[in-house]
Amino acid sequence: MRLRGRQGEARRNDERVLEAALEVLTRDPLAPMSAVAEQAGVGQASLYRRYPSKEALLACVCANGMGRMRDAAQAALETPGEPWAALCGFLHWYLESGTPQLAALLGAFSPDEALFELARETNELIQALVDRTARGGGIRSDVSGGDLTLIVAQLSGLRGGEPERDAALRERFLALVLQGLAQRDAPELPGAAPDAEELERPWREAQRLGPVERA
Description:
The chain is an all-alpha fold and 215 residues long. Helix content is 67%, strand content 0%.
């Protein structure tokens, strides 16, 4: 149901804040709340009414980003037609969504159990997407969802030049990765694929230590 009036405006403002916070704080976790407010085009007082602390904002940013990943993976899994095309579409979205950079927020807040459950749901959906593609013969059989998660996270961190050039390079290297994934007769990959526990470990460590005080 589409919200109207003040409710709709509040929802749109919140979406802008979360998008701005994802962009600003994954680029610089030490950036102040004022930088997020400026990026989102809202007043600081309005921002603090919704998020009383930076840690509260970071927790919402991560939950929102993980929820978007889960929903995108679910939509790709339910897409009719060629599984390989659905997987490629999801990876392109994932790369440019900004969500792989959530790991940059490690140590800035304490993840709760709801976030871990959301992450598990997301990882299971990505693995199901890989399994469906493998059953159709569209991807090599020794690749896991965890492999793709870490690969995309590495590609998404490619920053340093002009934004348009960075985006073009990310797309170039993703195309190269996809070509490698489609090589079903290639030699078997060395070592074991990362499992869910391995992907979760840095977040568990952040939960154990709590927010890190930084100068």
